[in-house]
Amino acid sequence: MMKTILPGQTIGIIGGGQLGRMMALAAKEAGFKIAVLDPAMDSPAGQIANVQLIAPYNDIEALEELAAVSDVITYEFENIDVEGLKRLCEISYVPQGSDLIRITQNRVAEKEELTKAGVSVAKYIVAESYAGLLEKSSSLDYPFIVKTARGGYDGKGQQTITSQAELKLAEPLFENGVCVAEQFVDFTKEISVIIQRNGYGETAILPIGENIHKNHILHETIVPARVDAVTIAEATEAAEAIAEHLEMVGTLAVEMFVLKDGSVMVNELAPRPHNSGHYSIEGTNSSQFHQHVRAICGWPLRKPELWSDTVMVNVLGQHVAPLTSKIAQYPNWSIHLYGKEEAKHNRKMGHVTILTKNLESALNEIDASGIWTEKLEEN
Ligand code: AMP
């Protein structure tokens, strides 16, 4: 049963990171109250919550407390405990359910569902053990990438294998359980499609962005993606097919590879607002966070429109000091910092969004600022 959740009521968020923070800020604009569950005191989202619950994400008592203070519950990251989420579904209102989390937590389940949805994924095999990899990988060509089925992010838990001699590099990955090995895709661009859906089956897709990674971490998102109209159409159709197949509610980010012939292949899913959608706060009429709140509160979705070409650039720990020292030089930059205390190397601390009439000059301005100068590290 879908409910309509209204301003004055409380949205509970599992996870207190930057995604929860931006979700909470959007919800607060409309007068919702926010409760956040996170193990850390004053997490990015906790800082602006009405109620902070400080406990591990799988602490049953804390989840029950979250249920007691919330009219609707959502989450801001995928590595939460499925059993805890199932329990919450029984005792509180969780319109997103637990299936989307169960599937996207595990690359094997995710690839199976993507295949069922009829979208294209890289050729892959599933290996339960290193011995299994040795046996099955002969069906793949080199290079291929071995990825742990669970728990990897930003390129962690992955190993590229370029020859038989390198196979042993993948052995340590099996300490974390089952792995998949997938064919290396010779892509021309990476794009992400953020699709949002409410419980009435209404969907909205944000303008599609092009992602530039540095050292496996998202560096820039450029919107609109500089790809052909047929690629946009195919990517949109694939995202719609996945959202319908999963009957998901909330937000789903679909990361895709664009191939030389302009077709797309799905890399992976994130069942939540995504770093590549941060541009939508200033760049569109309906940020991914506002739309997420609409979707889980049973409101009609807004049709997203892009105000102008937009670039988002991530601010990692090493960029904070140079950025803050140069803020005065860039009045057109929208600065977002997430309230994290320690500016550790490669930690996502914030982002900058630039709306522009000329993408090239905005990209040049970012480079010329000297803030994002790090060299590419070895894989
Ligand atoms: P993932 O954690 O699966 O998103 O992978 C992180 C990054 O590794 C992707 O954004 C790609 O740049 C690269 N990558 C992952 N899988 C493949 C693949 N099958 N072929 C080529 N590059 C890949």
What does this structure look like?
With 379 residues, the protein is of the alpha+beta class. The chain has 11 helices and 17 strands. The protein folds into 3 domains: 10-94, Rossmann fold (3-Layer(aba) Sandwich), CATH 3.40.50; 123-183, ATP-grasp fold, A domain (Dna Ligase, domain 1), CATH 3.30.1490; 187-368, ATP-grasp fold, B domain (D-amino Acid Aminotransferase, Chain A, domain 1, 2-Layer Sandwich), CATH 3.30.470.20. The protein has helices at 18-29, 60-69, 82-91, 99-104, 107-116, 130-136, 229-246, 280-283, 288-296, 317-326, 359-368, and strands at 10-14, 33-38, 51-54, 72-75, 124-127, 144-148, 158-161, 179-183, 189-197, 203-205, 209-214, 217-223, 250-258, 264-270, 309-316, 333-337, 348-356. The strands form 3 sheets. Strands 9, 10, 11, 12, 13, 14, 15, 16 and 17 form a 9-stranded antiparallel sheet that branches. The mean pLDDT is 96. Bound molecules: adenosine monophosphate (AMP). Adenosine monophosphate is lined by residues 122, 145, 152, 155, 182, 184-185, 190, 213, 216, 255, 267-268.
Overall CATH class of the largest domain: Alpha Beta
Given as residue ranges, the uncertain stretches (5+ residues, pLDDT < 50) are none
Question: How large is the share of residues in beta strands?
Answer: 25-35%
CATH superfamily of the largest domain: ATP-grasp fold, B domain
Radius of gyration: 21 Å
Classify the oligomer: single chain
> Pairing-aware structural class of the strands and helices?
alpha+beta
Count helical runs: 11
User: What count of domains describes the coordinates?
Assistant: 3
Query: How many DSSP-defined strands?
Result: 17
Bound molecules: adenosine monophosphate
Average pLDDT, rounded to a whole number, is 96
CATH architectural arrangement of the largest domain: 2-Layer Sandwich
